[in-house]
Design brief:
By secondary structure, the chain is of the alpha/beta class. The chain has one domain: TIM Barrel, CATH 3.20.20.30. Helices cover about 40% and strands about 15% of the residues. It contains 11 helices and 9 strands.
């Protein structure tokens, strides 16, 4: 079976206007990629006293994930549309259930629900949500969302979201119903438990340690077996390379060197991953500063990956 190829969509494309955002989404599909994913943050914090140092610039442009996926759905026909990852516990879960149900409906059953707990406490605070208990709320939110997708009448008895989910209905259901795929991101034991219990797949992010990948997959399989789920049905996706940190010139050039990209994808396949994601923001950082240049790079990399990896 061919390696699944995903592209994490570059929000920076908005600078060229909505027509070229649409051109990029459609072009990614036309090249032959399997999956188009959106990164999620609503706001980014400045580095101020008393706050942990941010992973990214506060001024990093990030389009709202579900609005952008809906925009992409209108100009595509085949490609799967998902989040990588949606920071679920900082959002209201019944609204998220409705948003993904609508995305799945209007895309003809092409939605994938990629979720994680996030890392930025200041973003949670800005959105009026608690950061400290986000893991427990994440678990309950998954169950509530799947109840909304599956059940005609929603009666949910939970510790965090019960008051908003009694004797309610949500229509239309997503075409994929309760089987709308849930992919969970994270690299902690709690994330592995979440994948094994709830997930159709693991969004690993960037990984270089084959032993870590093996131990993580084994941990996920053990949880799946304990939950009476089929571990063989779980998918595995890793990011080939994320955007570079400031001053990292070696990483910045990564996607401009196709041999390195192909070699990395081969390494990930050997670790057991059946899908890899190319980060189009990192492609922009590597020198493809326009939408057409990004598409040219994605075409070249797609052709090399299909020819040399599968």
């Amino acid at each position: 079976m061919n390696l699944k190829l995903a592209v994490e969509f570059p929000s920076v494309a908005y600078r060229e206007g909505p027509a070229l955002v649409a051109r990029l989404a459609k072009g990614i599909e036309e090249i032959g990629y399997d999956q188009l994913d959106m990164y999620d943050h609503v706001v980014m914090g400045y580095d101020v006293e008393g706050r942990p140092k941010s992973h990214h610039s506060a001024n990093m442009p990030i389009l709202e994930a579900l609005m952008t996926l809906s925009f992409a759905a209108a100009v595509t026909e085949r490609i799967v549309l998902g989040t990588e990852v949606l920071v679920l516990p900082q959002r209201q879960p019944i609204l998220v259930a409705k948003q993904f149900s609508t995305l799945d409906t209007l895309s003809g059953g092409r939605a994938r629900f990629g979720i994680g707990i996030g890392w930025q406490a200041s973003e949670y605070e800005a959105l009026g949500e608690r950061f400290e208990d986000r893991g427990k709320r994440m678990d309950e939110a998954i169950e509530l969302i799947q109840t909304c997708w599956r059940e005609e009448r929603i009666d949910f008895n939970g510790a965090y979201y019960n008051p908003v989910a009694m004797a309610m209905a949500m229509e239309p259901k997503p075409p994929q119903g309760g089987d709308l795929p849930v992919w969970v991101g994270g690299r902690s034991p709690a994330a592995f438990r979440r994948v094994g219990k709830y997930g159709n797949g693991w969004l690993c992010g960037q990984v270089a340690d084959a032993d870590f990948a093996r131990r993580s997959m084994d941990a996920i399989r053990e949880v799946a077996i304990a939950a009476r789920r089929d571990p063989a049905a779980i998918g595995w996706e890793a990011m080939i390379a994320s955007p570079p940190r400031p001053g990292d010139s070696k990483t910045k050039a990564f996607y401009a060197e196709p041999d390195r990209v192909v070699a990395r994808a081969s390494e990930l396949e050997a670790m057991g991953f059946d899908g890899v994601a190319l980060n189009a923001t990192a492609i922009f950082e590597s020198g493809a500063r326009k939408v057409e240049m990004t598409l040219d790079t994605l075409q070249l990399l797609h052709d090399r990956l299909r020819a040399e990896v599968g």
